[in-house]
Amino acid sequence: MDRGNYMVTYTGTKFYPLDPRKEEIKDKDISHSLSMLCRGNGHYKHFYSVAQHSIYCAREAKSLGFSKRVQLACLLHDGSEAYISDITRPVKAYLDSYREIEDKLQSLIYRSYGLELTKEELSEMAKVDDIILSYELKNLLTTESMLKTQDDVSTNYDLSLRDMKDVEEEFLRLLKELTAE
User: Fold this and answer.
1) Could you tell me how far CA 28 lies from the centroid of its own chain?
2) Dmax of the chain from CA atoms?
3) Which of 4, 20, 88, 114 fits a 20 to 30 Å CA distance from 97?
4) Helix, strand, coil content of the chain in percent (nearest 5)
């Protein structure tokens, strides 16, 4: 069966974005790629990676008392971006095919890490993502955000420019911690 075109990942894996397989999902590919991708489509005050955002989402989930499963889901919630990048929310809403590809891939990533998320867990994860997004918008945009922002973040997170390699390694450490039995 023809799986379509593939890309070569950081680890040298042939990855088929339109027909992905569990064995093609690699911790190192996700952590490396997300540490190299800028949030906010590059419109923040400085480079701030998707990996850094994901780490803070996992930490916030822990601060809110959410389960290790939700913390892991928060860490991995943008994992598909490691393979297919991202498109800003206002545009993504009009791209049904992209969202189908993204949803299929993100579901596979969750399953690869033993996560079959309930509606409640997905809701908790979305809440955390919105809290951290709001915090980022308030602190990383050069002008006042026109979006309604929340102030219910549990701690002040370090949104400064960080070395990509350090963020990648922190992501991997947290992933290992959250997947340990």
Assistant:
1) 14
2) 51
3) 114
4) 55, 5, 40
